[in-house]
Structure formats: C-alpha cells, structure tokens
Amino acid sequence: MGFPWCSDKYIFQKKIKAMQIYPSMKMAELIQYDFELLAVIQRLKIPFGFKEKSIETVCNEEDIDIDFFLNLVRWFHNRDSMPGETLMHHPVKGIIRYLRSTHSCYIDYQIPRIESEIIQLENNEAAIGSKMQLLLKFFREYISEFTVHINMEEQKVFPYILQLDENLGLDEPTQEFIKLSQQYSIRNFLEEHSDIEEKLSDLRNIMLKYMSPPSNNCAFTNLLIEIFRMGKDLEDHTLLEEKVLLPQVLKLEDEFHRKFPQQ
Ligand SMILES: [Fe+2]
Questions:
Q1: Do residues 122 and 27 share a domain?
Q2: Ligand 1 midpoint to CA 105 (Å)
Q3: Contact, 238 vs 200, CB < 8 A?
Q4: Which of 80, 106, 133 delimits the end of a domain?
Q5: How many whole angstroms from 151 Cα to the centroid of ligand 1?
Q6: Which DSSP helix (H) or strand (E) runs through 202?
Q7: Long-range contacts of range 81-89, CB-CB < 8 Å, 24 or more positions apart?
Q8: Ligand 1 center–CA 131 separation, angstroms
Q9: For residue 162, which phi and psi values (nearest 5 degrees)?
Q10: 36-46 pLDDT tens trace
Q11: In this predicted model, what pLDDT tens digit does every residue of 49-107 receive, in sequence order?
Q12: Into how many domains does the chain fold?
C-alpha cells in the first residue's frame, strides 16, 4: 500500500489543477477534467453533444465570444485570481446575459429543488427525529428575501446598465435615459446589494449544529451538500457582480459624463 500523495489519483488531481485551457482543446475533454465547469456551459446555454469539437468550434457555432468563454472557464477552474482582471474587458451585455441565466437557474431549479427536498424530509420527520418544519419556515423566508434581491437586479439594475451602454453609443442620449441617470447611479446598487449567501450559511449552521439525524441519512446529507453547493455558486455570482460588472459600470458612467458633460 503506497502513500495517498504518491497514488495515480493524486497525481491526476495535481494535473487537473495545472490544466491549461486553450481554444483547440476538445470541449468534452475540458468538462471531463473539471466537471464544475458544467455550470458555465449551462449558463451560456451551450447544448451538449460536443462530439470531437474543440472549444473554438463550439463557441463559433453558438455565437459565443471565445475570449469571454476562455476567461470565464479559466477563472472558474483556477480560482487563483480575481475575475475582474480579465473579464472586465468584455462587453457588459455578455456578463449580464450570464448573470441573468444564473438567476433563472436559482429560481427555476435550485431553490425549488432544495425546498422540495426539505418537504420530503419533513414528511419523514418521525424517521429522522429532527425539526424539519422550522427548517422549511426558515428556507421559505430565505426564498422571499432572495426573490426581492433578484427582482431588484432584473428589473432595475440590469436595465439601467444596458441603457447606459446603449446611450453611450449614441450622438445624443435619450430623454428617458437622461432622466434616469439623474436619479440613479450604480453606486446606489452597491449600497442596496445585500449578502444573499449569509442567510444560506446560517441555514447550514442550523443543520450542522442543531439538528441530529444520523449522518448515514442520505437524504439529509444530500440536502446539506446541495445547500453548500448553492452557497459556493452564490459566492461566485456575487464576485462576478461586484468585482466585474460593478467596476465596469463605474467606468461607463464616467465615460458617459465625459461624453455628455451637460447631462
Ligand atoms: Fe445577482
């Protein structure tokens, strides 16, 4: 029996960490090396069935900017730099499309899935001897806070950014946008941007510290894994919003006021 750090598996994992991602690499190979990148594939709505196609071919076929794709997957894979350094140079439209797609993944799939898992556990409460009803109440409160947060971005923040970007390309800004820009700045968003990951972390703490189903309860453990996974996803999402999108919009606003100083 060898030491774990000498095993093939360990060496393979070290190789994964050092993976270089380049345009001629096969898309299926990329995902096999790091399945966490499936989140990017899903949010960019890239269909499966990659066959032997390269990243470059798939991006061309799906009309996705290859540099944007590479910078996104490199950041998700390496995690050794802040996303802003490379992703900030891409048009805001692309990042917003990505963030919107992430929102619908949370609202249409991940949140209802976690909710239904809690309901199932609640139905078996006697079997696991825990307080699932309280957990469900807590999670439903979280859903309403989360929905308010998402709606604010979808209905107020993203439309403002898209209009700002569009108006910057015009000879004269529209009256509608002039009015909006006098009332709103992306700095307001920063003040309003609440931490939606924090409450999820409270939920994990309650489950870990104050509930006592046995750890071999697959359903409970699986629910905990799902909640951890969603928390990690939300952290990435917030980083993209605050470290990529926000600084970009601050620059666009400066540009707007330089180009149209009278506004
Ligand atoms: Fe968001």
A1: no
A2: 11
A3: no
A4: 80
A5: 9
A6: helix 198-210
A7: 82/239, 82/243, 83/239, 83/240, 83/243, 83/244, 84/243, 84/244, 84/247, 87/240, 87/244, 88/244, 88/247, 88/248
A8: 31
A9: -65, -35
A10: 999 999 999 99
A11: 999 999 999 999 999 999 999 999 998 898 766 766 788 889 999 999 999 999 999 99
A12: 2
